Amino acid sequence: MPFMVVIGLGNPGKKYAKTRHNFGARAVGAWFENHTDSEVLLPKAGVFMNDFGGLIKTLEVRPLRFLLVHDDIELPFGEIKFQSGGSAKGHNGVRSVHNALGTTDVPRLRLGVGRPGAEVEVNEFVLDIFTEEEEEKLGEVIERAGNYLTQLAGRAG
Fold first, then answer.
1. For 18, 42, 144, 151, which has the most beta carbons within 10 A of its beta carbon?
2. Active site residues
3. Class of 5-156 per CATH?
């Protein structure tokens, strides 16, 4: 069963474009430039990460037809993991989607951004831009995420 909708979670606007929290939207956007055979949902003006559930609910697509792509502080920077369902693990954007669909059985591609140090709040960390060192490696990570997306789209089809 192919994924009908690939969703890159993120926040709209230039202010958030290069933040860790927009990693999912950024990776999906880059992948979509080369793959137009799947429907892709990127943040629309005025739709923030924590409100994606409301937008998704209007699409009336079964949960397993979605593929969420999002940042994840539980994974080290650059690590990518596919997960077929399960807890949002504190990610409010994922929780919003789960609540809207009434299930946690939603396939996800988790993109590691690492954990902040003890002196930095999680919200502050994910809404900050990548470090220069991370930004230098980001192209390679986004390319690997695109390869995962291509494999998942092919395997699902």
1. 42
2. 21
3. alpha beta
Tell me what pLDDT residue 93 has: 93
Contact yes or no for 82/47 (Cβ under 8 A):
no
Res 157 pLDDT > 50: no
Mean pLDDT of 29-33: 87
Q: Is 135 exposed, middle or buried (0-12, 13-18, 19+ CB in 10 A)?
A: exposed
Q: How far is CA 101 from the centre of its chain?
A: 17
